[in-house]
Amino acid sequence: MTIITGRRGVLRTFALTMATSAIGVASAGGKPAAAAVESALMPPGATHLDALKKRLAQAPRRRDFKTVPMILNNPAQWDHEALTEVLSYRPVPRQAWDNIDIGGPWLSLMRNTLNTQIWSFKHPDFLAVSVTHGTADLALYDQAIWDKYQLTRLAGEKFKTNTLIIEQMAASADPSNYEDPAGAFSGGDNSIPALMRRGVVFMCCHNAIWEQAAALIKAELNSDKLSHAALAAELTNHLVDGVVLIPGAGGTMLELQQVGFHYA
């Protein structure tokens, strides 16, 4: 039993206990991220990264919002536990990607960086995080919400459906042959599920969700006539399994940089 002496110590412990309790109660309706993000593509020796991935799979994700505010002001409103796990990850190097354009080469760039870090520089525990906002944020919604709100109108004609959440044929290739030009680590498998299986953490910006809800209302793509707060909540509830909801991309990027993540 540890006894904390002094008034400051007591107050600090009390505050931490109360905050943790509040988050626990608010997150009671949350569900663990799906454990479907398997480890088959994890490199040999990635013990720390594999352990992080398992903890993230168990961290609750609340996806039963009725409404959400414009500015999140309580950790229970985002995936606080999962974000804390990422911020607490200490093996280096770590990199945070500022991904904003769904039609850009962001998945390919992260894949190439993973390959270089793992096999060229021998850093199997390298952690890459996608701080996703702008139109890239649309790639983190499931197909059901794409269909309901015609999200291709926001994503562009190149994306009739959300193809980025569909793993490609190359995923079935032998992962032990990492030099295979048509294999699981090649451009033939540029997909969000493939990168998740390799340990990449995809974060979704609440501010982008709020702006997308506003765009849908303005474009009269709001068949249920939901309020702005309710529509943003529905979009949030349809993030694909494994995604970490954050209060805002810019502010969270700063938090990541402060604990040692390199900006990309």
Short description:
It is built from ten helices and seven strands. It has helices spanning 7-26, 47-58, 80-87, 106-120, 143-149, 152-155, 192-197, 206-218, 228-237, 249-258, and strands at residues 31-32, 60-61, 94-99, 127-132, 201-205, 244-246, 262-263. It has a five-stranded parallel beta sheet, with helices on both faces. A two-stranded antiparallel ribbon has the order 1-2.
Q: For the report, how would you describe the main beta sheet?
A: 5 strands, parallel
Instruction: Give average pLDDT, whole number.
Output: 88
Strand order of the largest sheet: 6-5-4-3-7
Rg estimate, integer Å: 19 Å
Inertia-based shape: globular
Q: State the end-to-end CA separation.
A: 44 Å
> Helix amount, in percent?
25-40%
The total beta strand count reads: 7
Beta fraction: 5-15%
Q: Uncertain regions: pLDDT < 50 for 5+ in a row?
A: 1-29, 33-38
Structural class: alpha/beta
The ordered string of helix (H) and strand (E) elements is HEHEHEHEHHHEHHEHE
Q: What's the tally of helices? A: 10
Keywords:
264 residues, globular
Question: What's the layout of helices and strands?
Answer:
Blueprint: H1 7-26, E1 31-32, H2 47-58, E2 60-61, H3 80-87, E3 94-99, H4 106-120, E4 127-132, H5 143-149, H6 152-155, H7 192-197, E5 201-205, H8 206-218, H9 228-237, E6 244-246, H10 249-258, E7 262-263
Parallel strand pairs: 3-4, 3-7, 4-5, 5-6
Antiparallel strand pairs: 1-2
Helix pairs in contact: 8-9
Structure description:
- The protein is an alpha/beta fold and 264 residues long.
- It has 10 helices and 7 strands.
- The chain has helices at 7-26, 47-58, 80-87, 106-120, 143-149, 152-155, 192-197, 206-218, 228-237, 249-258; strands spanning 31-32, 60-61, 94-99, 127-132, 201-205, 244-246, 262-263.
- β3 (94-99), α4 (106-120) and β4 (127-132) form a beta-alpha-beta unit.
- α8 packs across α9 (228-237).
- Residues 1-29 and 33-38 have low confidence and may be disordered.
